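Posting here for the record, re: S-adenosylmethionine.
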Amino acid sequence: PPGLYIVATPIGNLGDLSPRAADILARADLIAVEDSRVTAKLLQRIGTKRPMAPYHDHNADKVRPALIARMAGEAIALVSDAGTPLISDPGYKLVRDARAAGHVITTIPGPCAAIAALTLAGLPTDRFFFLGFLPAKEKAKADAIAEISAIRATLILYESGPRLAATLAALAKGLGDREAGVAREISKAYEECVTGTLTELAARYADHPPKGEIVVIVGPPGEAAPTTEADAEALLRDALLHLPPT
Ligand code: SAM
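Prediction output follows.
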């Protein structure tokens, strides 16, 4: 049926394309893509060929109205090069405008590097905060980190190999030396997740920028140190109550 289909695609292992995603892609009248070469490979893998239209940061504003118009009578799928569209990828304005136009919108959930990394790191998952990519410039990066330093949640961010060590060091400086994980090449042959404190990880990668795609996971702040004398006294009294019997 006509409408907009948000289709998640693999982040490395083509086996992660869901049967439903493959089915929707094979039947779409048009697939809006970031890079037609990347999506052509995926379509080839599932033995199909569909019309594609580029939809990326540089042309989105221009081509969006035509895509919205076509959704009235055609099934338009949106994919990005890898993972879930809209997550550090284009698409939310397309969904917004499709919604405003009253089109049917459905999502075909699947791989997302942020969530996959969160499941690898062994850090708390009950509350998490996704930062996307931090700014590249040092000052802007430090400011962005300062802004989120008080958030009591695990942090998830995307980063590139060459910038990893500097970002880990900036995180250690702005957040304190929290527990963290670096997940790399998820679902590919050289998948790994290295854990340690931010300082340890910064040192590990300083002289050896890793290759491939990377997600950084940072644990939440530890229990806050007592700030007033009354707090300290309450903590002490509580500790005394729980001393083992002698
Ligand atoms: N929309 C995508 C998703 O759902 O994960 C993310 C797109 S964002 C432009 C690309 C970034 O995601 C990469 O720079 C990297 O930080 C992360 N990423 C993508 N695939 C990955 C993988 N297989 N392993 C680790 N990180 C990955």
